[in-house]
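This entry is passed on directly below:
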Amino acid sequence: MNQKIFVSAKEVADRAGVSRSAVSRTFTPGASVSEETRRRVMEAAEALGYHVNHLARGLMRNESGLVCLIVSEMDTPYRSSLIRAISHQLQAVSKIAMLINTDRSDKSVDDALRLAISYRADASIILSGMPDKSITDLCVKSGQRLVLINRDEEREGALMINLNDREAAHRAFIAFQRAGCRRLAFANSDVGTPSLKAREEGFVAAAIEAGVEVIVERFGPTRYQSGVILAQRLLTREARPDAIFCANDLLACGVMDTARHQFKLTVPDDICVIGFDYIEQCSWSSYDLTTFAQPVDQIAKEAVSWLTHPAKTDSIASQISPELVWRGSVRGG
C-alpha cells in the first residue's frame, strides 16, 4: 500500500535553488521576495505538489485557525443555513470549521470535542440552546474563545448572540389581532430551548395583557410531523382556534397541511398561521407562510468578526430583532 508522503519546504528550496526562508516568505502574504525567487519557488512547489502546513504555522503562533461548530438538529433547514453562513464567513478569514454533532447526548459528543481541543481548536461556536452546558464548561476549561447563539447562559469573555424572541412574539399577537382573529393558539415542541420558551412566553404575555386567552400545545421535536400532531390536537377542540403562532416554520408547515387536507380548512380565511425562522420552504406557493426571518448572515458575520479580533475578558451580548415577513397565511398580509 502506498503511503502519502508530504513534501517539505526544504525539498522545494533545494529544487528551486533558494533558501528555506525564501520559500517561507513566498507563501507568507505581504512578505518581501523578488519576482524571480517567487517564480522559481512556485514552479518547484507545483512540480513537487507542495502545500503549506498552515496547522504547523498556526501552532507556532499559538493558534490553529480551527473553529468548532457545535450543532444539534443540523439537518433542519434553519440550522443548515446557519452552518452554511458561518462556514463561509470562516473560510473568508482563512479559518477552518470542525463540525461536532450533539444530537446524541452520549460520550461520543464529549470525545469528539476533546479530540477537537487536542488539535488546538481556537474557538467554539455553539449554534443552539440544545447542547448541554457541560459542553460549554469543557470549552471554557480548555481556554477556547466562545460564541453562544440563542442560549440563556452567560460566560466570561464570550460573545452571546440572541434574538429578541419576546418582541417578535408580541408582534405576532398584534398581527393576529389586526387580522380579526379572536381564538389564539401557540404550537410548540417539547424541546424547551430558551428561544422556543421565549416565543411562547412572549406570545402568552401579550395576549394576557390584552385580556385574550391563548391555548398552548406542545409535542415532540421541532419537526414537521410534530406540527401535524399539534394541529390535530388544536383543531379537534370544541372552541377551535382561528389563529396559530408556531414556534418554527417546520411546525407551521405541518399545521397548515393538516388544517387544509385533514380538516378541510382554508388558510387564511378559516385559520391564520405564523411561523418562525424564514426557511426556504415557507416561500413555496403551497405554504406562502408569514414568518419571522432569522438573520443568519448577520449572525454569522458578528460571530466570525468577533473571533478575528483580540480576546476580551468581558462577555458581550448582542440582541437582534427578527424581521416579520408578510405573506398569504395571515389575512391582510
In short: The longest helix spans residues 77-92. The chain has three domains: 9-52, 66-163+296-321, 165-294. The domain at 66-163+296-321 is CATH 3.40.50.2300 (Rossmann fold).
